[in-house]
Amino acid sequence: MKLLVTQNYETLSQITADIILMKWSENRRVNLALTAGASPKRVYEILGERLNQVGFDQSLAHFYNFDEITLKNQELGLTMQALIDELYQPLGIKKENIEILTAKNYQEYDKKIAQDAGLDLVLMGIGEDGHFCGNMPQFTSFEYGVYRVPLEPEGELYRLIESATPHTPGDEMVTFGPQTIMSAKELVLIATGEKKAEIIKQALSGPIIEDVPASILRLHPNLTVILDEAAASQLK
Amino acid sequence: MKLLVTQNYETLSQITADIILMKWSENRRVNLALTAGASPKRVYEILGERLNQVGFDQSLAHFYNFDEITLKNQELGLTMQALIDELYQPLGIKKENIEILTAKNYQEYDKKIAQDAGLDLVLMGIGEDGHFCGNMPQFTSFEYGVYRVPLEPEGELYRLIESATPHTPGDEMVTFGPQTIMSAKELVLIATGEKKAEIIKQALSGPIIEDVPASILRLHPNLTVILDEAAASQLK
Amino acid sequence: MKLLVTQNYETLSQITADIILMKWSENRRVNLALTAGASPKRVYEILGERLNQVGFDQSLAHFYNFDEITLKNQELGLTMQALIDELYQPLGIKKENIEILTAKNYQEYDKKIAQDAGLDLVLMGIGEDGHFCGNMPQFTSFEYGVYRVPLEPEGELYRLIESATPHTPGDEMVTFGPQTIMSAKELVLIATGEKKAEIIKQALSGPIIEDVPASILRLHPNLTVILDEAAASQLK
Amino acid sequence: MKLLVTQNYETLSQITADIILMKWSENRRVNLALTAGASPKRVYEILGERLNQVGFDQSLAHFYNFDEITLKNQELGLTMQALIDELYQPLGIKKENIEILTAKNYQEYDKKIAQDAGLDLVLMGIGEDGHFCGNMPQFTSFEYGVYRVPLEPEGELYRLIESATPHTPGDEMVTFGPQTIMSAKELVLIATGEKKAEIIKQALSGPIIEDVPASILRLHPNLTVILDEAAASQLK
User: Fold this and answer.
1) Lesser CB count within 10 Å: N end or C end of chain B?
2) Do C134 and A198 meet the contact criterion of CB atoms below 8 Å apart?
3) pLDDT (tens digit, 9 = 90+) per residue, B36-70?
4) What phi and psi values does residue B114 have, to the nearest 5 degrees?
5) D222 CA to chain A: closest CA distance, Å?
6) Which chain C residues touch A185 with a CB distance below 8 Å?
7) Across C98-217, where does the E strand assignment appear?
8) Which domains, and CATH codes, for chain A?
9) Do B56 and C3 touch (CB under 8 A)?
10) What is the ipTM score, two decimals?
11) Which residues of chain B lie closer than 8 angstroms to A113, CB-CB?
């Protein structure tokens, strides 16, 4: 594990944007799975500026959503809607470069990734409960590839999703499991703010256990963890 | 450059077969460009035995012909005919895993390779004139990507081809150029027999010049050269 | 995980020997941690033949013992004695290329490996109890780097060691932990014979848990598992 | 070749600084050869800021000067003096992490690099005459490893050096040759300003010839070229 502790969110975002840029600009197909959400907001703004400032062939990168949550009466799920709003649309990523994981194709998706030559880079955040991608405590197991979690209206997960969208949650969530993520060539995990300090301590220096799903990531030989000082404040 | 000098052709062939096997069995798509011809004959026999003896998912490798010579009134060119006979058919490689370079598509082929995520391994021989793939002295230039050489019935190249096939040579040859080959992740060059000793000396220890096209290969950071003792006999 | 199931031990050994040979012959320093024991016996015989048959600069590889068990009144521990007998001495590996993990230096060893530029290749076997290196069920934890296990004369581990050597076991065992091994660039796990079939099934297709230490290895992005058919017989 | 054309020198410098930072922060020994001179001035300023802002173990990188020009009555040569002033001193790089190429040890230096596990990253500029490192037209040859060029007081090279230092030039220059540089795992070439536009056109789109030494670099499979718009202005 490579650990970078930055003084602030801006520096974290600049470095992370450049890591993505360096992969994107490889002169061959690269497969990128980049997270939606609050943590990378500034990363993608800087990445957008870079794309305006830096000329290269942008057509060789393919983009993968690493999880999806179905929504009632919606063609697209929660993750894909967010990625389009936050990443694909603002950065001008074309339809033919977007690979879509859904509740329909998830059983074939590990095979598809292998046929696409594997994932080159995965950018992830971490939840306060230790989840990465859709790997929630109690629901994930380290040996899982791409898998499905049913959503039950009484469950905590359902309520969490409900609070994050104006739409009604659907019946299921699908996600790249630990096995899928650990097969990627390079992983980047970012976390910012004091709210993440406790779980970062657990994930990076506590036991590697399924109750803290992100703890497994530090066994990947090419993991980079980038934290601001607040998120790192409980590390020794 | 990594140089292995083996006592005999059998050892050379075993090692080379295992190099190919290790790539082929990656659990993701790999792109292999393997030479036809006399030098790898035993390599492919051993590889065929390995495929019978070793179980793995063979469907993830794609095979590229790195050159092609058109033939009059023949659907397939000289290289593809040889590859089918010597490699694809005996090893049971399926049509959907065979990528075909032709005189029709060569101008788009560097782009295609990039879109396919690049070449993972190229296995080449060397000609007594120093050629590799279809890069002949007088016809190649180090900066060429995939390119075309017209065949002229009075030319030496034409006569060379004529002697190698019962068919009538066509109008052109296409080949991965030095730039295309040097972009691959890993290169393997094999040579056997005393007849190759002089050109091996020139290619591996003489000046790096277009008159000895294969001399450029030793600037690749992941080149393995495997020689039997006869082919290595003029190296100091 | 790349899985190769070979018809027999001889093929397994040839392939494994060539994997080691290809690393050893890199034209730069490489760091290899190769297991002692019964499983690789034929591997090292073939590797010895290769070294006689294949000329290359052998001086650039450094060899690491990934565990050590102290013995009373012996300068060298059990692992180093075995490695000298089975690998270093027969293959003519020189003193200056042998890096030694001991009960004295283990606390500095993760740092040392990093300063040496990391491990390029680790070759391991698997115990019937699921151990790899010295990572025994009940004694290991996935987050451990190089660590120490005290040997207690009443313990099962002590008795196991006692049965494997004419010497009296010492006070401790040290071993590369899961974190150390998972940081290596490439892992190879070999297993042969029906006696390993049950644990191979558990390690490769069961849950990833500390009670089956080797189960963690399949989360490494560059793991190759090579089994003979007997060892693979309980995989689906 | 990966080509990035940036709108301005600041963006070029930020990206280049982050490329170096990402290597430097690997959690294992890395070997970096970074150029002195005007082009990377802002790169190193930004890198210095990053080192203040970003916490990581800085002790694992080793720094190599890729050329040296001896000076009369000076312990250190021209390059090392510049590197100390521009890079090593301002960035707080410790003596034990600085590897020194001199006119005394150059004949052993390719061997030393191999024993050190190879170069991970080389950052270079380009001269208006097409030189990279100390590879000048008329003086270099593509097959050279680390080599020596005698300085003759009547020569152009001597006068060039004289104009760049208050000291008297010594008898010789030593430099990593094309073979040494092409063996590195990753290359980065930067160029800025209109004065470099003509040579960039020649080096990146003209013939690959020893009269334009830097033209050879584009045959490296992991070369990144970063230009500002002025330097790229003559590319089509």
Assistant:
1) C
2) no
3) 988 999 999 999 999 999 989 999 999 999 999 99
4) -60, -45
5) 9
6) 221
7) 98-99, 121-124, 147-150, 169-175, 187-191
8) 2-228 (3.40.50.1360)
9) yes
10) 0.96
11) 28
